[in-house]
Design goal:
Number of helices: 5
CATH class: Alpha Beta
Strand content: 25-35%
Number of domains: 1
Largest sheet: 5 strands, antiparallel
Strand order of the largest sheet: 1-5-4-3-2
CATH superfamily: TT1751-like domain
Length: 134
């Protein structure tokens, strides 16, 4: 059995509208979107491959990021919290939110009680954002 590391939500709607819904849900929980990578456009431009609409959003809660980076600087390798939005069928999108608790338990990060607590806090917030989309 494969271990999951994301919270997945299927939504009906237009791809761009779903991205807007996800962005607003994250905002409600204190996360801003720092980066947006339109993977389908990158693949078309760089290697001339057609790919379904697929976007990676880099979400960040500045307060939690500051606490995490203060606790251990190399945790920056695990930031921001990524969210993917992909067109899964006509009029339907699959949204995947990374599980921050799992991120903060990676390797020796899980030995740091402060990072574990920050990951748990972020996971609750991400979970509420995901749940609000249903």
């Amino acid at each position: 059995m494969t271990e999951t590391f994301s919270l997945d939500v299927s939504l009906q709607g237009n791809f761009d509208d779903v991205i807007e819904q996800v962005t607003e849900a994250l905002k409600t929980e204190g996360f801003g979107v720092l980066t947006r990578i339109d993977v389908d456009n990158v693949l078309k431009t760089k290697i001339d491959v057609d790919f379904r609409p697929y976007t990676i959003l880099g979400a960040c809660n500045p307060v939690l990021a500051h606490k995490a980076l203060t606790a251990r600087a190399d945790v920056g390798m695990m930031l921001p919290c990524n969210v993917t939005v992909e067109k899964s069928a006509e009029g339907e999108c699959l949204v995947r939110f990374i599980d921050p608790a799992k991120m903060m338990s990676f390797s020796t990060l899980g030995e740091n009680a402060e990072l574990t607590a920050i990951g748990a806090d972020a996971a609750v917030r991400i979970g509420r954002a995901a749940a609000s989309l249903n």
